[in-house]
Design goal:
The protein is α/β, with parallel strands linked by helices. The protein is 38% helix and 16% strand. The model is unreliable at 358-365 (pLDDT under 50).
């Protein structure tokens, strides 16, 4: 099987899912991607069964020739915002190939979304046979675009679970002895993440912290306004392979975003056994955060509710936080790279899907 991926900004967790795909199925992957984002400088290289190229190295005719020469059985496009990718999608759809469009937009009922629904029969359905959505809040949008349940896939974004699960197991004995009193924020330092509100609120809580600290890992337009202070550590950008280690230091993930279509970081640190404190704008909370069970959901853009959420966490005894962490780890397993790979290949006839080694059991990494 040959899978063509037409991607915008390639992410480490997506790359891990493709590795799972080619490891367990007789599959070859060809990936075209936009240049690496300077704000998130992940490094990607080609490897056995996975060939990666930057799209900027090809004009449209050369891109089409390369894709035709590859001869894909399935095409995945990470959205409908790239004109060249849209043209390729239409090309392969005309050949009768399954062409999947990824979508993480939550249904908001905006004028722009309603216009997209009206245009979908001409603009989308001629290009894409399937829509692959991140979760619950995107499913409604896909239905409104005119796709039936049989043409909607779920579970688009999946964390690379193995390193986070490993850190959970390794750090648990120490946490049982001395629970780490550190909130952890991982993400861009930008207005849509409401990171400045979190930073300022934690400053204001200096007399009520009960030994808790705040670790902020990320870069962005607000970083120069956030110097390190007593009780607040600014870690800057952290490469993907170093992210799991942060979980060993942390006692709770906090993500107060105003706009967060999904948020893979929620599943990552749930797998690492952290209690959750996230805003209702975070799409992934529908799958991985249950109010009062493994954390709390706060109202986006409400500093007082965020403050009270942090206070609730700080007031919990260690055993309650450990139990929340255990529940987070359990919830994180709803979606794995193995299930992601199987979902992608579900658009093909069953007889065409072949395991790379007969009898091999798919892992949940």
């Amino acid at each position: 099987m040959k899978i063509l991926f037409l991607y915008t900004e390639l992410a480490a967790y997506f790359h891990a899912c493709v590795q799972q795909l080619v490891r367990h199925y007789e599959a070859e992957a060809l990936i075209f991607m936009w240049p690496v984002n300077a704000a998130a400088p992940f490094q990607f290289v080609s490897e056995q069964h996975i060939h990666i190229h930057e799209k900027t190295e090809y004009d449209r005719p050369a891109l089409l020739r390369a894709c035709q020469a590859f001869g894909p059985d399935v095409v995945y496009v990470s959205g409908w915002g790239d004109a060249d990718y849209n043209e390729l999608a239409r090309h392969f759809r005309r050949q009768g190939k399954p062409v999947i469009c990824g979508m993480d937009n939550q249904w908001k009922g905006s004028l722009r979304q309603r216009l997209a629904c009206l245009a979908a029969p001409w603009m989308l359905k001629r290009r894409f046979s399937h829509i692959w959505v991140a979760g619950l809040y995107q499913y409604e949008y896909a239905r409104r675009l005119g796709y039936g349940p049989e043409n909607i896939l779920t579970g688009l974004y999946c964390a690379h679970l193995a390193p986070f699960r490993a850190v959970y197991q390794q750090s648990l004995p120490h946490k049982q002895q001395q629970y780490p009193r550190n909130f952890l924020y991982v993400g861009r330092l930008a207005p849509e993440k409401d990171s400045m509100t979190l930073y300022r609120l934690f400053q204001q809580l200096h007399k009520q912290r009960q030994g808790w600290k705040l670790i902020m890992a990320g870069t962005g337009p607000e970083q120069d306004q956030m110097p390190g202070l007593p009780g607040i550590e600014m870690r800057g950008f952290v490469q993907p392979e170093a992210l799991p280690a942060l979980a060993a230091e942390a006692g709770c993930l906090v993500l107060p975003s105003l706009h967060e279509p999904w948020g893979v970081v929620v599943q990552e640190f749930a797998a690492a056994g952290l209690p959750m404190l996230v805003s209702g704008a975070v799409g992934a909370r529908a799958a991985f955060v249950v109010e009062g069970y493994n954390g709390y959901v706060v109202r986006p853009g409400d500093p007082q509710d965020l403050k009270e959420g942090m206070q609730r966490i700080m007031q919990q005894p260690d055993e309650a936080l450990l139990q929340m962490g255990r529940r987070s780890a359990q919830l994180s397993l709803q979606l794995t790279p193995a299930s992601w790979a199987a979902t992608l290949l579900s658009v093909l006839p069953r007889r065409e899907v072949k395991i790379r080694q007969l009898g091999e059991t798919m892992s949940s990494h």
